[in-house]
Amino acid sequence: MEITYNFQVTPTVEQIIELYQNSGLPRPITDKARIQKIYDHSILIVTAWHDDRLVGISRSITDWAWSCYLADLAIHTDYQKFGIGKKLVQLTKEKVGEETMVLLLSVPTAMDYYPKIGFTKEDRAFTILREK
User: Fold this and answer.
1) E-assigned strands of 2-131?
2) Sorted alphabetically, which InterPro entries does this protein's record hold (predicted)?
């Protein structure tokens, strides 16, 4: 199975929603306009493709000098456990460079995954949750 990775191609909203539905990543998939807005305002998007099928995505917001917030990492369930997520994170880190840290908020089901691919668990994060 050959997976290609791309920084230049932003998938369609329909492709993104299909991937989110399949991967189980909780996002507002019934609100196409909101998904489009999310991607319109993201700075770094890395995609994984099997032929013409979107099988993985990494979406980040960064200042390119200090921090990079990895907002989404979604892998199609049929393609999990092949190293695609790890590769997307690796490509994200390479793109933002050595001066920039990568941080994220994990969904509960992925808490055991991130340490396996190089993340350190932190207990010093704070959030103001969205109202909608």
Assistant:
1) 4-6, 44-50, 53-62, 67-75, 101-103
2) Acetyltransferase_Butenolide (IPR053144), Acyl_CoA_acyltransferase (IPR016181), GNAT_dom (IPR000182)
